[in-house]
Design a protein that fits this description.
402 residues, elongated, 14 helices, 81% helix, mainly alpha
């Protein structure tokens, strides 16, 4: 049917398709030539068209429910899942840094909120907290590196004396040598290592130190960015929930963020307290390398349940270089401190923010540590607290109604 233009329809005239085609041509081109080209193309297409194909009638379209199509789509899904899993496994270190940085940002957010309640803009609060964190990290390295270097030099100089004590059966090291043959085992390890492997070990140690520094710097930068964009991250997470369930999801999400933030911040404070008290104890009893050991206590104390116990065992073994009574006293000190931390320090600092039973805490730490190592052990308790909240607020009420 011919197409009528608005004005042409009013006059009763039909619109010419060739004239309409001419109006769309660029300036400078001949309309008659373009029309002839179009007509020739239409004639050629009309000549080639047939009612029935030459080589037979096409079959019906493929059935999407056929075993072939289902199998092909299933294989494609398996291949895609495998590629994604390999990507996650290969980027495990980066993902661990991202998770730790996000946890630190959530832990520092209560401080930012406290500053905002004091009528400070958020950008100013985030800047102030970020400067405090950067200053703390720089101050930590500035205060730790010189004593660590000095204590490392003292350890190297004291190695000959330690070997002399190995020959003295009346000393603690001599008794350890008599029972466990420490010198013989160390000599065998050195001979087995060889010069090349020893150099490779030293080079590997240097690479580990450099990698640790780069990872710390990366995590610090990520923490600052996450802390600045935490409101946007929350909004993005909440927008992924359907609108009808979004208010409930916001309430649960804010509770989870509060539990995670309270736990992370409280865990950092308790670790600093453990390190400070351990440093005082080691200095009083003249245990060697007090700063190095106290830093180790702070790092291990971040790991729940088993961290403080492991740190106490290591410090007790180092205390054997002084005397057996000092080692026994050190073991008693860490045992008493562990109970004081569990029953007095943690309840007052963290309080009921996390509220996870002791059995669930132990099981969560064991599962998290087995699955993801140290990172899994660190995030085990906040994840357990979030799961417990969801069970109490969502799952159990539904089960009770059925």
């Amino acid at each position: 049917m011919p197409v009528r233009d608005g004005a042409a329809a009013a006059d009763g005239e039909e619109r010419d398709p060739d004239r309409a085609f001419e109006t769309t041509l660029p300036a400078g081109e001949r309309a008659s030539d373009q029309v002839e080209v179009r007509k020739a193309a239409e004639s050629e297409a009309s000549a080639l068209s047939r009612d029935k194909p030459e080589l037979g009638t096409p079959g019906p379209p493929l059935n999407r429910r056929s075993p072939y199509i289902v199998g092909m789509l299933g294989a494609a899904g398996v291949a895609t899942t495998y590629v994604l899993l390999q990507l996650v496994l290969r980027s495990g270190g980066v993902l661990a840094l991202i998770v730790l940085a996000l946890l630190l940002a959530i832990g520092l957010d209560p401080v930012v909120q406290w500053l905002i309640r004091r009528r400070l803009p958020r950008w100013a609060a985030v800047t102030l907290v970020s400067l405090l964190v950067i200053g703390g990290v720089i101050g930590f390295f500035a205060a730790a590196i010189p004593p660590l270097a000095a204590q490392t030099g003292q350890f190297v100089k004291a190695l000959p004396d330690y070997f002399k004590h190995l020959n003295d059966r009346s000393s603690t090291l001599g008794r350890l040598e008599a029972h466990y043959h420490v010198r013989e085992r160390a000599t065998q390890l050195l001979h087995a290592a060889g010069g090349t492997r020893l150099f490779g070990g030293l080079l590997g140690a240097g690479i580990i130190v450099l990698d640790a520094f780069v990872s710390t710097l990366t995590m610090l930068v990520l923490t600052i960015y996450f802390l600045a964009d935490l409101p946007r991250i929350r909004k993005l997470i909440y927008r992924l929930v359907p609108g009808t369930r979004r208010p409930r999801a916001i309430l649960l999400g804010d509770q989870i963020f509060g539990k995670v933030g309270g736990y992370v911040l409280g865990n950092l404070i308790t670790s600093l307290i453990a390190a400070a008290l351990a440093f005082v104890w080691l200095v009083i009893w003249h245990v060697p390398y007090p700063l190095l050991l106290s830093l180790m206590v702070a790092l291990f104390d971040l790991i729940p349940v088993i961290g403080a116990l492991t740190a106490g065992i290591i410090v007790t073994l180092v205390s054997l270089t002084i005397s057996i009574p000092v080692a026994i006293a050190t073991a008693v000190y860490f045992t008493v401190y562990k109970h004081a931390e569990d029953y007095f320090i943690v309840p007052r600092i963290i309080g009921r923010t996390v509220d996870v039973p002791a059995t669930a805490t132990l099981v969560a730490v064991l599962i998290g540590g087995t699955a993801l190592g140290i990172v899994g052990a660190l995030i085990a308790i906040p994840v357990a607290a979030a799961i417990r909240l969801l069970l109490r607020e969502v799952v159990f009420p539904r089960l009770d109604r059925t």
